[in-house]
Write a structure and sequence with these properties.
Helices cover 33% and strands 24% of the residues. The longest helix is centred in the middle third of the chain and has 27 residues, at 295-321. The protein has a 9-stranded mixed beta sheet, sandwiched between helices. It is built from 15 helices and 20 strands.
Amino acid sequence: MDATAHDLVLVVDYGAQYAQLIARRVREARVYSEIVPHTMPVEQMLARRPAAIVLSGGPSSVYEEGAPLADPGLLAADVPVFGICYGFQSMARALGGQVQRTGLSEFGRTRVQVDRHGTLLAGLPAGFDVWMSHGDAVVRAPDGLRPLASTPGAAVAAFEDPLRRLAGVQWHPEVMHTEHGQRVLEHFLYDVAGCRPTWTTSTIVADQVERIRAQVGDRRAICGLSGGVDSAVAAALVQRAVGDQLTCVFVDHGLLRAGEAEQVERDFVAATGVELVVADARARFLEALREVSDPEGKRTIIGREFIRVFEQAAADLVAGAGGPGVDFLVQGTLYPDVVESGGGTGTATIKSHHNVGGLPADLEFALVEPLRSLFKDEVRAVGEELELPPQIVWRHPFPGPGLAIRIVGAVTEQRLATLRAADAIAREELTRAGLDREVWQFPVVLLADVRSVGVQGDGRTYGHPVVLRPVVSEDAMTADWARLPPDLLERISTRITNEVREVNRVVLDLTSKPPGTIEWE
C-alpha cells in the first residue's frame, strides 16, 4: 500500500532534533508523518496535500534576525496547523499575537494550569506536569485563538481555534516526561484535524515491499547482515519483495561481540532461509585500523572497508553465478542515524554513521534503505510482523563499527579480546536478572589508553578501567542512565575484575543524552 493512500501529516523542522520525535508520536497515533525543512516553500508543502501540519520547536527566538517564522500563507491555507514550543510562538506572532521575553524562563518539568479545556485539552485534569524549554512566551493570543492554559512563565501556554483548525501548546507533548502528551497530540490529530488512524505495521510492510519491487525490479541486491535487528528486518523486507534476487553477506570484521557471528548463521538463516555468504575480513579491518585512535577516523575507515569487502563479495557472486551483476546494497539505516549525521536542514552533525556519513564517495551500489524513515520501535514491530525470531527482534542496538568505537584508543586484537570478555559478562548477568527488555542498550567501554592503579592478590596492578553504560530510551534520540539494582552491578563488577585480568576497575556512566551520546565514540 502506498503512503499516499493515508492522511499525511507534515512536521516542519525548525532545527530541533525533537522534530523526529514528533513524527514518531504522530505515527504512534497511526497517522503517517514526514519531516520537511522549514525552508520548504509553502506552495511545495501544500502540493503534498497534507491533512495537517505540525510546527516543531527550535533553538531560535522569534525576534532574532533571520529566525525562521511561520508563513502567514500557510496559516491561511485552510490546513489544520499545530504549533509546539517555538512553533507555537512563531504561529502566534504570525497571526498577530504578542510574544515577549518575560525574564522568567522555564526548562524541564513545569506545572500547567488548565483554564478551559476546549477540544485540545478535553478530558484532562485541571493541572498536570509538562516538559518546557523556553525563554520567550506568548503574552497575548492572536484574535480568534482562545487561550486554554497557563504556567508561571507563560501567560498563554495553549490556544485553539477549532473553526480554523488551528491550535498549539508551549510545552513539548512529544516528550515522555510530559503527562498526557500523546492525548493532546491525538486530540489535535483526530478531533481538530480529522485525521484517519490508518498507518499500521501491516501497511508499513506492504508499502515498503511495493517500493522495493519498484526500485530493484528484476536486478540483484546484496545486504550486509550484522546480526542486529536493523539489518535483519531490512533483509527480511527485501527478501519478501524480491525473493532469491537477494543475497546476504555477513562481513566478519572481527569487531563483533562474543557469539554474534554464530548467531547470524544460526538464527537469521534458520528463520528466513536466505542465501548467506560469510566474508572473513578480520585481518583486513585490524590492519586498516592500526594505530587509529580518532573516533571519526575509525568510523570512516570501517565504512570504507566495509563497502570494499562488499564490492569484492558482489564480484565473487557474479563470477560464481555467471549471471547479471549486483546493483543494489541493502542497508538498515534508521531515522536517528540520518538525524545524528546532520541529514536535514537545521540539524547539526553529532557524529557520522557508517550507514550514512561514513560511506565512500565512489560507492558502486545504489542503496536500498527500507527502514530509513522508521524509528526503532517501528522496526521491531515490522520484525514481529515478518515473524523473525524474538532473539533478533529484541536484540539490543549495536553500532555498525562494532567494538572499535567502544575502545577509547587504538584497536588491537588484545584490546578487542579484553573488551569482548567484559561485555559478555555484563550481557550474561543482565539476561540472568531478567532485565534485557528493561534496558535499551548496554555498551561496555574499554579505556584502553588509561592505566588504573589497583591491588589484586598481594601485588599492585596497572590495569585498564571499563565503563558500564546501561541506558533506557524509547527512540535513541534521548536516553537516561538505567537504574540497575546495586547487587547486579556488584556481580558484574566482581566478575569482570576477577575473570578479565587486564581490567582492575569498573565504573558506571551516569550521563543522560543529551548531553552525552549513548556511545562514547
